Amino acid sequence: VFLGMESLQYRRSIRDITFVFKSVNGLVRFDTSFSYKHAPLTRQLRNSHGQRLSLAFDITASKRSTFVSRTVGIWNKLPISVIDSLNVDSFQKKLKSLNLETLPKKYFDD
Predict the structure, then answer these.
(1) Between the CA of residue 93 and those of 19, 29, 39, 88, 103, what are the distances in Å?
(2) What is the spatial distance between Cα 67 and Cα 59, in angstroms, rounded to a whole number?
(3) Cα 95 to the center of its chain, rounded Å
(4) Neighbours of 37 (CB within 10 A)
(5) CB 3.0 to 4.6 Å from 36: which of 24, 53, 107, 110, for a disulfide?
(6) How far is C-alpha 34 from the chain's CA centre?
(7) Which pLDDT tens digit goes with each residue over 1-11?
(8) What is the pLDDT of residue 106?
């Protein structure tokens, strides 16, 4: 935090993850067929949720910094309590209460 502002990387992550929340919940029109697909687990894991996503493409050097490749890994690591939010405001509030810096560094690499 510098001058009372979060880092650009943090703000971009919040914005990107919020967009995924909106698209998963049908709150924004976005054709996901070329970006991600739902990938529910075949068995329940301890820290998992039913809204898991996978990339619809192989990650190449040119696609590594797209919002989808930056966001899917973070989305899949979010707790159920955040994913199951009833609206965007609730989602963002819960998301901002998490320490996103504790997620694996590879999800934030450009």
Answers:
(1) 14, 23, 25, 9, 18
(2) 12
(3) 10
(4) 13
(5) 53
(6) 16
(7) 456 667 787 88
(8) 46
Extract the tokens encoding 7. Answer: 């880092």
DSSP per-residue letters across 6-62:
--HHHHHHHHHHHHHHHHHTTSS----TTTEEE---SS--TT--TT-EEESS---TT
Say whether 106 sits in a helix, a strand or coil: helix
Residues 21/91, Cβ–Cβ less than 8 Å? yes
Residue 34, amino acid: F
* CB contact at 8 A, 13 and 108: yes
The dihedral sign for the CA sequence 28, 104, 49, 64: positive
Task: Tally the residues of the chain.
Answer: 110
- Give the integer Cα–Cα distance in Å for 12 and 30: 18
pTM of the model: 0.71
Q: Which amino acid does the sequence have at 102?
A: T
Buried b (16+ CB within 10 A) or exposed e, 54-84: ebeeeeeeeeeeeebbbbbebbbbbeeebbe
Task: List, in sequence order, every beta strand (DSSP E) within the chain.
Answer: 36-38, 53-55
